[in-house]
């Protein structure tokens, strides 16, 4: 407790309540006063008072909005004195976003990376891009309170080490918080791409209202991020959401995991490219699948249909088990829209129990290839209560604000 | 707020803290003071003070125990002034337990019900048995603060209505809280058998430490209850845990749900009985499967092996998705022990991603056919904060206790 007040005092109580509101805004992004009351358990009157002092102190701004058809006041943390970096690293790219405490994107850029790049190469490219964005945006480097990093594939939760089975073999064994943290001089949080995609959907996407959401990333690998009760679900070891190795056909193709007939052997983008090889000449890329699919190429549509149907079948199991409000499909194929979503939906409805098939919404991510970097930035904002930089900023303001009003 | 104190006062704060501790003990059963501190977020000193006043008021008792190898004090709510009833109704039986606030079984009994009994018959049998147990235990009828009811199959969460697809066709459309509540003159809570089994495992079973647990009931139907973060997970509609209709073989037998090759068509007790018919003479019952399996009958072991392996395969998908600490297998076959657990484990390890297969514990329930009734009683205790009877008992004590000490 860094408070100068005795723990039981009225001013300490007010300070705790104010912290609750700030943390709710950091964790969930802009919210109406009614939503803040629900999240924090504080009364509407208390919320209204706290929002007034936050606005007065220049820490928040309010904007009129509508919520459930009624006029309401949306509250957003304000200013770029505290900024979160989101870094997304893939097999061939690095993307960095800078986001404000109020979930506004301040700067964003992606660069290509060579296939098979080393961890050092990738991290240096990310650090250079981050430095560049900070400079160009005219932000004080000290305002960057931390960096979130997204990587495809499994990550050991306690140490943040990239595990075997990752899509980036040259990164296996690297402790991301340690190595990246040292390079950047920042606190670094790390998570896999599917979890960050899920986080991005509830923080930045079109389903910010959802408390039960599943994000499925379909790419070279296939993974899911599970939001349960409004929070990411990690499970006992942190490996929750592993859907790519669901056995679909016990006699199917052998998988890199050592099993047979896993979903990834039937519906990853690599499998789709292999399936397209006999009917096409020359190399085909994931971008080609999107282009040809949208152009109505029949071989491509057949491949998407088969892959989508089996994706839908596995999503049906997942939906039966977890009963989400919505499943969001992300990854490099999301621009395909209905060409991929339609067979997925067919597979889902065919294999789910009727009430689940009928009520589970299924949509394409509107965040496209920005999802992971945005999710990584919100990871930092969500944990910003831990950041000394932000805490001193808020606590300073806070104590000052309240001591000025002390009776 | 029923408190006579102003909301911000010290005494109101103490009262809220005391309520938190009582609710934690009701919701989770007996706990050490350290566990109570973790659950409530209160300091060890505050917990210790509250436990002293609860003991002084006769509302709790403490017993020495060991926790993580160290000596500790276990706190348990005390007395039978507030008692929860747990009622489990199956196709052929009704079981009632009476449990104290301190999670002690005061009385328990099961009676047979005719196959195909009506909802009224079942409810009247349960009411008679409950009345009988209350009388014999010498408990004041007014001390029964509510009844939890467990039924096999899906239940509409908001209204507590038995849905189509339930194992008890004569009960479909019955609103359990309404019909049962009127008959018993009690607040009635209802849930399905698999959810109550999961709740029983964390409240009464051997894995009370688990926060990520899956209970799988294998019977005429197959269902799962998911404990996530120490709480039952219901999902958007309350249908979470539906594993019986996972598609295992898209060309498999047609299922009562209208789909094909669902887990239930391959591994329910009904399917096992059908599979045994060609190799046995006369009618075979679920109890016969247990007896013959334990006696080493080769046809029975083969049926159990096939069913267990496919159960393990579906549990592997579930474990991949949710990453639990432990899967507990319950239902009428749990007495089979390794004869069923071994093929399930083989199926799990074969089909799960390696780290999940290696670390997910899988055990048979030690609660046997008592699981649902015990879970139903703990459902009442968990929600007892809502019960006017219990609230007046606790609040009375509480205000009295504190006013006596008011400075």
Automatic annotation (TrEMBL), chains A, B:
Family that this chain belongs to: Belongs to the ROK (NagC/XylR) family.
Location of the HTH marR-type domain: 21-71
InterPro entries, per database record: ArsR-like_HTH, ATPase_NBD, HTH_MarR-typ, ROK, ROK_cs, WH-like_DNA-bd_sf, WH_DNA-bd_sf
Species this protein is from: Luteipulveratus flavus
Highest taxon above the source species: Bacteria
Protein name as catalogued: ROK family transcriptional regulator
């Amino acid at each position: 407790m860094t408070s100068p007040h005795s723990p039981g005092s009225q001013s300490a109580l007010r300070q705790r309540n104010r912290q609750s509101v700030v943390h709710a805004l950091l964790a969930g992004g802009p919210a109406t006063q009614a939503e803040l009351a629900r999240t924090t358990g504080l009364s509407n009157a208390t919320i209204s008072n706290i929002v007034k002092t936050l606005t007065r102190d220049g820490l928040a701004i309010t904007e009129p909005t509508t919520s459930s058809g009624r006029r309401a006041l949306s509250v957003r943390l304000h200013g770029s004195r505290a900024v979160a970096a989101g870094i997304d690293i893939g097999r061939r790219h690095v993307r960095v976003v800078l986001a404000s405490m109020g979930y506004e994107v301040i700067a964003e850029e992606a660069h290509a990376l060579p296939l098979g790049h080393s961890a050092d190469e990738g991290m240096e490219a990310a650090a250079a891009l981050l430095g560049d964005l900070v400079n160009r945006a005219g932000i004080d480097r000290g305002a960057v309170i931390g960096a979130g990093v997204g990587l495809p594939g499994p990550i050991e939760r306690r140490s943040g080490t990239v595990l075997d089975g990752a899509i980036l073999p040259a990164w296996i064994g690297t402790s991301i918080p340690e190595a990246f943290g040292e390079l950047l001089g920042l606190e670094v949080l790390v998570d896999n791409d599917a979890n960050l995609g899920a986080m991005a959907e509830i923080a930045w996407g079109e389903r910010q209202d959802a408390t039960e959401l599943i994000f499925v990333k379909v790419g070279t690998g296939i993974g899911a991020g599970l939001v349960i009760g409004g929070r990411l679900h990690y499970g006992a070891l942190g490996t929750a959401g592993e859907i790519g190795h669901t056995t679909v056909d016990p006699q199917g193709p052998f998988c890199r995991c050592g099993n047979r007939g896993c979903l990834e052997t039937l519906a990853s983008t690599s499998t789709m490219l292999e399936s397209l090889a006999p009917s096409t000449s020359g190399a085909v890329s994931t971008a080609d699948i999107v282009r040809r699919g949208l152009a109505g190429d029949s071989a491509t549509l057949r491949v998407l249909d088969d892959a989508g149907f089996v994706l839908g079948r596995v999503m049906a199991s997942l939906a039966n088990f977890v009963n989400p409000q919505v499943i969001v499909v992300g990854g490099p194929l999301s621009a395909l829209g209905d060409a991929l979503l339609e067979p997925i939906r067919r597979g889902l409805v065919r294999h789910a129990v009727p009430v689940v098939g009928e009520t589970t919404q299924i949509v394409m991510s509107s965040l496209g290839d920005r999802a992971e970097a945005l999710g990584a930035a919100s990871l930092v904002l969500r944990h910003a209560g831990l950041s000394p930089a932000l805490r001193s900023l808020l606590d300073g303001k806070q104590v000052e604000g309240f001591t000025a009003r002390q009776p």
